[in-house]
């Protein structure tokens, strides 16, 4: 059987991945730490065409056949899998996100994690999650972290073999919530894959990279102790530091919109004025992720939904690693 | 006669002053460059009470008598002048800004420049503008630059005597416009004087300070050649770098509001989409200064006024240094 279907969760980074040391292998400038998401996932079926009838890979995303240009990253990734298996087969790939595109949830993380696991399973390649993490990294850095559930660190390493994610704690360790406040449906003009190459043009990059070791340690300790007040300040600092690098690169990447600031200011007001234990982080886009303990989530959701510029709120718990499913999308 | 009235223009920094090397003397971590403003100024009358009847300094700002707490910075500055003149006299000080408080125009720059010049003149202290610049610096760093008209550089120096502003070009050199888009009337929670002390807590400070030398050179060259397209990118970069330092200091200073981002995104759209030669800079607050050549100002003003979050627009030309007036406010 040359078909397999895998569901993989996206992840939200507490310490971000921004900037590459090796752009071919996607080896990052620093470690990063994330939480894999239970409720924001991609389900992907890969069916290899052993007959040779297919001339190109076919990629259907959320029910829409993708153009060759939009399939290029997928095909490059499948080329790596074909190389490993020693085959020339083309593939039918059907993929479905349970969250909207450009919602501030990294669809490339869950998408390339699911593609990697499904593609290898369908080829009969037997690989452990660490090896799969290295493979997923080649297509999208943050996908390497979605190979494990719960709380995950991607060790930057220095080669294809050792730049891989490692699990810190399972999803049951800490009942956190990620509330994504979607402020804009616009697609971003520059994918984060392009932005990584610009990081080195920022005069502020070195400052972040020099300090990120201490922040990683702080986040590990906060997760170990399930301490939201220790986790929160450092995730806000690192998100602001990453956006500082983005804004000051050449060309300047200004991902924020007015709604972004409405939420950032509101979070600080709720925390400092009302004692609500909620903190923010922001990926490469205008939307804001609010991180809090499960018991604070209903109050945070109510307040967030009342803000003028919040279009919708997507809530997720910590989730498992990739799972092989019995039913296929094709 | 122990009374004098002086009008001094505020200034808008193209390369910012943020962070102090010596907090008592207000010696900055880097040079800064600004344009003195013709149309945003403070007029201040200082009358020294030679009779000894006054027990404290009296400070009336925009028609309102200020509390002792709000007069403290003024009194500390007058103490320096009293020391120089060898007198114990208290002063009546009446001051009026022709622009609203918390409008994004630095009232401490024009205010302390006018106070310094008027206070010294009324005491009969004869000092050249360089010496007055050093004196003004003691109360408010950016006030040192308002001692000269036109385009001005504050050389950081290393002592009270040599940390002074120097004129680069007079106001007639380049007919630029500063359009201040006021997005919020709220007073900021932290004065910039307090923020300067926090700069060193930012992991990104060193990156800005390391690179600012090249940016200063670029700005000097752009002013010399009256080249808005050379000036613009570097003033945007430095403003974003300064706010990066602010956001990542401990505690984090997030001066921006939703309206700030509406304007930043609009400026880039107008420039990249429509070829309008306008660039932004931002001081320690939510309002945005748009810099353009005189001929572009009407179009920029029309567009700016149409933005939802812009409450008002204040426009200024390059202006002269402090001027002694014949009529007094008292």
Question: What features would you describe in this structure?
Answer:
The structure is a homodimer of 330-residue chains. In chain A, α1 packs antiparallel against α3 (129-139) and α5 (205-224) runs antiparallel to α6 (228-247). Chain A has 330 residues and is an alpha+beta fold. Chain A is globular and about 65 Å long. In chain A, β11 (278-281) and β12 (288-293) form a beta hairpin. Chain A has helices at 68-85, 107-123, 129-139, 192-198, 205-224, 228-247, 258-274, 297-305, and strands spanning 3-15, 20-22, 27-28, 32-49, 58-61, 64-65, 90-97, 151-154, 165-169, 176-182, 278-281, 288-293, 312-316, 323-325. Chain A has two domains: 2-171, 2-Layer Sandwich (Ribosomal Protein S5, domain 2), CATH 3.30.230.10; 176-316, 2-Layer Sandwich (Alpha-Beta Plaits). The relative contact order of chain A is 0.20. Chain A contains eight helices and 14 strands. The first copy, chain A, starts with a strand and ends in a 5-residue tail after the last strand. The model of chain A has no long low-confidence stretch (mean pLDDT 95). Chain A binds chain B through residues 202-208, 210-211, 236-237, 240-241, 244, 247-248, 250, 252, 254, 256-262, 264-265, 268, 309, and chain B through 202-208, 210-211, 236-237, 240-241, 244, 247-248, 250, 252, 254, 256-262, 264-265, 268, 309.
